[in-house]
Amino acid sequence: MILQYFFQKVYMCLRLPCVYSVLSTWLRILILRTMVFFVVVLQVFLPSLGFVVPSSTIVPIIYPSSSLLPSDSSVPPTSLTSNQRKLLHAHQKLGYLNLDMVQYLARSGALGSSIQSAGNCPVPLCHACIHGKQHRHSIPPDSTPIDISHLDPGDCVSCDQLESSPPGLIPTDRGTPSTSKYHAGTLFVDYASHYLYFMPHVSTDVQEALQAKHTFELHASQYNRFVKCYHADNGIFTTKDFCTHCTHQRQRLTFCGVNAHHQNGITERHIRSITERACSMLIHAMISWPDIIYEQLWPFALQLAVDLHNHTPGSSGLSPLEIISGVKSLSPTIRDFHPFGCPIFVLHPSLQQGHKIPRWKPRSRVGVYLGFSPNHALSVPLVLSITTGLVSPHSMSSTTIFLQQQIVFRPIPFPILGLHY
Known about the structure:
Elements: H1 2-14, H2 17-22, H3 25-48, H4 82-93, H5 99-108, H6 127-133, E1 157-169, E2 181-190, E3 196-201, H7 206-221, E4 229-232, H8 240-248, E5 252-255, H9 265-288, H10 298-311, H11 320-325, E6 343-347, H12 349-352, E7 364-372, E8 381-385, E9 391-393, E10 400-402
Parallel strand pairs: 1-4, 4-5
Antiparallel strand pairs: 1-2, 2-3, 6-7, 6-10, 7-8, 8-9
Helix pairs in contact: 4-5, 6-9, 9-10
């Protein structure tokens, strides 16, 4: 009992914030492994020398984990069936889409033949959704009529702004990370296709809103779609500059009543759905990898939630992207997405260029998957470097390896440290 008490106190001291911040990672692991060694020696060799070790005094072996890799704190419990595990994994890959919708996609074969059996299993409980999506119950309206003038993409687009008190990281692929931060964003919703477009902002002034409007219209023009009408809340969209810009573009602009946010309910509902999915993804990633994932990555989580929404087929069998573009099965499909914040291993830059590196030097470095890049090809993911803090695009070829089986995995004996290139 004395030995058990001693080791428990030492382990608790190592977990104290003051001690955790002073001791290096290698020193903490060395102390824990020394404790494990003595525990194994006492439990194995004492009985061979004639000493009896009561079961109540056996100290459980504590395995140290790496601080640079996700912990296994959110691994589903063993009571889940195989189909439920597959369903939860697809639920994570699709950005915490509603589980009923995930089962519908599984039964339809959109997620592959290996997961079709999970389409009829009992729906398990997702703890990340409980933390990220819980809210008060609302009273549903009697009906939601569709305007006859909103049948074609671009006939009417609703827009609204959202703000975030925690600043958001602005991606930088070279040099040092930017000191400027995102604090808001504008979401555009097409009424006919329910296609979403999100653009983060540094501030909420009218120039940022006009830039987002211009960028969205350029994005829609590549699908040969042109906006005819905007519907928005009062506020920044009622300014003279925004109204004048719509007049010059021959676009009609309508507003909601004062404090009548329900008159812009389509955008408000999509903002809520997207932020809840992004929050669930970010919370799960921070719980699984607390030393690397932080809340300033919310712009990437929001963008990934928007991309997942645009690529997810609806009840008609078509995704919003397919409806607005008029092209079936644009790449990437929902099978190409991965859980937000999962580890991604990128090949060494010299090996990507066909050169050689020293034999015993690591051939890849670990990064963080942040979704697909909006400024590159549709199959190019964004990778956050855990050593420099830079966000760079990488080709999704043999140079990049994803851990697709699960977002979290059990600790390895030796941590991956010092991967500086």
